[in-house]
Amino acid sequence: MASQTGEIVQSSLAALLENDSFLPNLKGQTRKKAFTSLAAILSTPNHVHKSFLRISLENEEVVRIPAYRIQHNNTLGPYKGGIRFHENVNESEVTNLAALMTLKNALHEVPFGGGKGGVVINPREYSVKELHRICQKYVRSFSDIIGPDKDIPAPDMGTGDREMDWMTAEYKSIRPGQPYRGSFTGKSVVNGGSLGRREATGKGVYFTFRYLLHDFVKEEKSWLISTGNNYAKTAVALSDQPLRVAVQGFGNVGSIAALEAYHCKQVHNKVVAVSDRNVTLYNSEGLDIPALADYTYHNQGDLPKNVEELTKSGVKATILDREDVLYLDVEVLILAALEDQIRKDNVEQVKAKIIVEGANAPVTGDADKVLNNKGVIIIPDILANAGGVIVSYFEWLQGRETQFYSEEEVFALLSEKMQSTMSTILPQYFGDPYSLRQNCYIHAVMKLSNILYRQGKLY
Ligand code: NAD
Questions:
Q1: Are 327 and 291 in the same domain?
Q2: Is there a contact between 12 and 441 (Cβ–Cβ < 8 Å)?
Q3: Which of 165, 222, 239, 342 has the fewest Cβ atoms within 10 Å of its own Cβ atom?
């Protein structure tokens, strides 16, 4: 398990062990034994599947490409998690991500377990035909262990609806006459995908921020002030002032979160910076986010990276270095690019008072501690970026019912689900000394532990 994920699961279990009102029937040695069982179950995957995909390339060379499907835990339902195509994919990373999926689904009450897949390739180095073959071979290698009621993959870094459509077609041809629509989510809409899936994660990311600062703080202001809690002080102070927002990453998650911020009427905020793999764009008066979204749509996903391109986009901005987005004088920083962006070596340069994790694990464990000690509010990945898996769940349901929801219905259901999680977690967060991340983990571990106990698995 990821060192940070593993560490937090262990400390969540330690906190729950001391809490006599949690699983009160377990006492003394029996209690200790049950918690040891829990730690073992949550820190190891149920199954690690590895295969070498034999692919004939267009130049007639034949290669063997390592591929994984890791099934972490299925206590709550079929395994669920994306398939990543990236040259750095390895067993430990995929296992960590699978564990995070188990906890994320438990936190948001999505009836799935946690899984993850990966193929060790840089997809930019393969032709469309070769990528198609890789997808088909992946499904053939793992077809016995995936399926609508066993394990449901989805897109992740390096994959999208095209790959899910190819994989679904291969699954269908291997298993004729059997249900196949729910075997993969994140498919294209014409192929049974859900409306709103593409926007779901970015919308959810911004929703968690808006709900915390607008809905929750406004409603609970006097209680928050009375708690004397450090995070409560930060939230109340920020809820009364105009906010400057910076967004790292302008892809699927970052661009949608930035658009949500740009259009939001409830929070007085403006997006002053966005960044991508090449540059940071900054304008203290606020950036024209719709124009930038339009530009990236027509330019292979990249923001304008020089004066000429900026002029072409019609957007007023200063071009800064790619990393500068992390250190700007802003109140809110949305991290929607990669893992390990804020670390021990750069954490002191970060000025934001609220950090929202759109990417998985963009803040390392060391940096997380430093920021928490300063009263910085971190809305963690497990809470903020679950929009994708929540709408994947709706896609899976729609595939079973063959009834499709409108985009408005999807977004209304998404907000309802995320709001329900936020309203459970936030009062605990502001009322006790734990970070928001720790609170989310405690909640997820409680949910899983209760079920494992009821199922007689804690021996
Ligand atoms: P994406 O590929 O669409 O966009 C990634 C963005 O990050 C691009 O703008 C890219 O230029 C930028 N980027 C790449 N390297 C960078 C660097 N070194 N510095 C700054 N920017 C850099 O990916 P996405 O779907 O938006 O996902 C972003 C993150 O969110 C990933 O870590 C992904 O695992 C995570 N995530 C995505 C979803 C989803 O539904 N898409 C769900 C949960 C988590």
A1: yes
A2: yes
A3: 222
